[in-house]
Design goal:
Blueprint lengths: L1 H30 L4 E7 L5 H8 L22 E4 L6 E5 L10 H8 L6 E7 L4 H12 L3 E7 L1 H11 L6 H15 L7 E3 L10 H41 L2 H10 L3 H18 L4 H9 L5 H12 L5 H9 L6 H36 L2 H4 L1
Parallel strand pairs: 1-3, 1-4, 4-5, 5-6
Antiparallel strand pairs: 2-3
This protein binds guanosine-5'-diphosphate and magnesium ion (MG).
Length: 369
C-alpha cells in the first residue's frame, strides 16, 4: 500500500491537492480490493463461531461453516470471507481465558495488531476476561465493538422470572454500557444479538451495517494516513530546498540601494514561497473545488498567510534605521534580519501547508461519494 502511495508524491509535488485528487481517483478503485481483517474474540462459548456463520447465512452443519460447539472447538484463528464483501475477512479466534491458554500467551498467539477491527463477544454477563480484552485492545488503539450474544436466552429467563417486565433489552444494554464505563473505558458501541434468529432483534442488522461502514472508514484511513505522511515529506523537502535560496536572496537585498526595492524583492520571494507550497490564491481556489473546504475556510487560511511573523519588526528596523548607511555593519544587520524573517516565514508556510493539505485531503469530495 505504502509503495503505491509513493507514486502520489510526484502528483502532489507538482500539482498539490489537485494532483492528489487525480491520484486518489485511480487508487480508490484498487483500494476496494485491500483486505480488511476483522477479529471476533471473547470468552469460550460466547458464540463467536456462531456469529460468523450467522453473518454468512450458514448454519453450523453447512459445508464451509465455522465449527460450533458446547466445548471449545476453535484452536487456531480461521478466516471467513464476508458474503457481500469478499475483501472483508472475519477471523474466528479461539476463546480467551481457557485453562490451557493463559491470557498473556493468548495475546502473543493472536497478535492483535494484524487486525483492523475487533469485536468482543460476551454472553449473560460481562466477565473480567472481556473487560481485560477491551482494556488491552483499546490501549493498542484498535477499533472495537462490544457484542452481547444469547439475548434470546436472557429474554426467556427474564420472562420466566419477571413476567410483567418488558424492558429486558433496555436494561441489558444499559448494564453493558455501565459495566464498560465503570472499567474506565472510552465509548465502545454495544450490540445485543441472537445468533439463531438474526432478525429477532434490531441490533444484528445494525451491527452488520456498522461493520461495513467501519470497513470503508478503515480503507480510507489506510490511504489517508499514507497520504498525510507523504504530503508531509514532500512539504518538508520543499522547505529544505527553499531554505538553500535564503542566503543569496539576503545578499541581494542587502546590496540594493533603495528601501522600496528591497521591500519589493522580499515580497516577491515570499510570494514565490507561497506558490511553491500551492498556498497562493489561484492554487487555493482550484484546490477548494475538489474538497469540502468552504470559502470561509479559505479566507481563514489567507488571513493567516497575511499575518507577518514577529521577525518583521527587526527587519523593518534594519531596513529603515540610520545604521543602514554604515558600510559593513549596515549590510550585516540587514542580512541577519532578512534571514530571520525569511526563515520564520518559510517555517510558518510549511506548517500551514501541512495543516491545510491534511484538512483538504480528508475532506476530498471523492472520498465522500
Ligand atoms: N441461545 C443461543 N445460543 C447461542 C447463541 N450463539 C451461540 N450459541 C450456542 O452457544 C454455544 C457456543 O457457540 P460457539 O459459536 O461455538 O461459541 P464460541 O466458542 O465463542 O465460538 C453453541 O452451542 C451455540 O449453538 C445465541 O445467540 N443464542
Ligand atoms: Mg468457536
Amino acid at each position: 500500500m505504502f509503495q503505491k502511495a509513493i507514486k502520489a508524491k510526484d502528483f502532489f509535488s507538482s500539482k498539490g491537492v489537485v494532483g492528489l485528487h487525480q491520484y486518489l481517483k485511480d487508487e480508490l478503485e484498487t483500494l476496494k480490493n485491500v483486505d480488511i481483517n476483522l477479529a471476533v474474540t471473547g470468552s469460550s462459548g460466547t458464540g463467536k463461531s456462531s456469529f460468523i456463520n450467522a453473518v454468512r447465512n450458514l448454519s453450523a452443519d453447512n459445508e464451509g461453516a465455522a465449527e460450533v460447539g458446547v466445548v471449545e472447538t476453535t484452536m487456531e484463528p480461521n478466516s471467513f470471507a464476508h458474503p457481500y464483501r469478499q475483501n472483508l475477512k472475519l477471523w474466528d479466534l479461539p476463546g480467551v481465558g481457557t485453562v490451557r491458554v493463559p491470557k498473556d500467551r493468548y495475546l502473543k498467539n493472536i497478535s492483535f495488531e494484524k487486525y483492523d477491527f475487533v469485536i468482543i463477544m460476551s454472553k449473560c454477563r460481562i466477565t473480567e476476561n472481556e473487560v481485560w480484552l477491551a482494556r488491552t485492545l483499546n490501549s493498542m488503539k484498535l477499533r472495537l465493538a462490544f457484542v452481547r450474544t444469547h439475548i434470546d436466552d436472557d429474554v426467556a429467563n427474564e420472562r420466566r422470572q419477571f413476567p410483567k417486565r418488558d424492558d429486558v433489552i433496555t436494561r441489558i444494554r444499559s448494564n453493558c454500557e455501565v459495566e464498560l464505563q465503570t472499567a474506565n473505558l472510552p465509548f465502545i458501541p454495544v450490540f445485543l444479538i441472537d445468533n439463531f434468529e438474526k432478525n429477532a432483534y434490531p441490533d444484528f442488522a445494525r451491527l452488520e451495517q456498522y461493520m461495513l461502514s467501519q470497513c470503508n472508514l478503515q480503507k480510507n484511513e489506510i490511504l489517508l494516513s499514507c497520504i498525510s505522511d507523504l504530503a508531509r515529506d514532500v512539504i518538508e523537502a520543499k522547505k529544505k530546498h527553499m531554505k538553500t535560496r535564503i542566503p543569496s536572496i539576503c545578499d541581494e537585498i542587502a546590496n540594493i540601494g533603495s528601501y522600496a526595492e528591497q521591500n519589493n524583492l522580499l515580497r516577491h520571494e515570499l510570494n514565490e514561497f507561497k506558490s511553491y507550497f500551492h498556498l497562493d490564491l489561484p492554487s487555493l481556489k482550484i484546490d477548494v473545488m475538489y474538497t469540502n473546504f468552504s470559502d470561509d475556510d479559505m479566507q481563514n487560511v489567507l488571513n493567516i498567510l497575511d499575518e507577518e511573523p514577529p521577525e518583521i519588526i527587526q527587519l523593518v528596523d534594519a531596513l529603515t534605521s540610520s545604521t543602514r548607511g554604515i558600510p559593513i555593519y549596515g549590510k550585516y544587520k540587514i542580512k541577519k534580519a532578512c534571514r530571520h524573517f525569511l526563515t520564520s516565514s518559510l517555517n510558518k508556510l510549511a506548517k500551514i501547508s501541512i495543516k491545510t493539505t491534511d484538512t483538504m485531503v480528508r475532506g476530498m469530495k471523492i472520498l465522500q461519494e
